[in-house]
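Issue 218. Parser rejects a valid record. Input:
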Amino acid sequence: MPEPEQVFVADKGGTEQKGKKDIKKIEQTVDFLSETQQRAAAAYTAYLEAQRQLEEAYKEQERQANKVYDEVVERARKSCEESIAQARKTFESSVSRALRISEEAEMKARESRKEALERTWAVFVKARK
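Output the parser choked on:
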C-alpha cells in the first residue's frame, strides 16, 4: 500500500530537518523501550517458568521421600512379622520339646516307681516266708 505523500513547508532555520531528527530520536527511543519491554517480559516469563520448575522439583522430591518412607515402613513391618513368626515357631518348638521331655521323665519316673514297688514287694514277700 503506498504511503501518503508528505508535504513539508520550508521554513527558515531548517525546521523540517530538525523535525525529522526529532522523529528519528523518538522512533529510536520507542524501539529501545519496546525492546526493553520485550526483554523484561521474556525475563518475567523465564522467572515464572523457573518458579514452576522449582515447585515441581519440590513436589517430586516430596513424592520420592514419601515413597522411600513407605518402602522402609513396609520392610520394617515385614521384618517384624517374620521375627514374630520365627519367635512363635521357636516358642512352639520349645514347648513341644519341653512337653516331650516332661512326658519322658514322667514315664521314667513311673517305671522307676513300679520297679521300686516290685522290689519292695519282693523283699516284703521274702521277709514273710
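Fixed in the parser; the record now loads. The mean pLDDT is 88.
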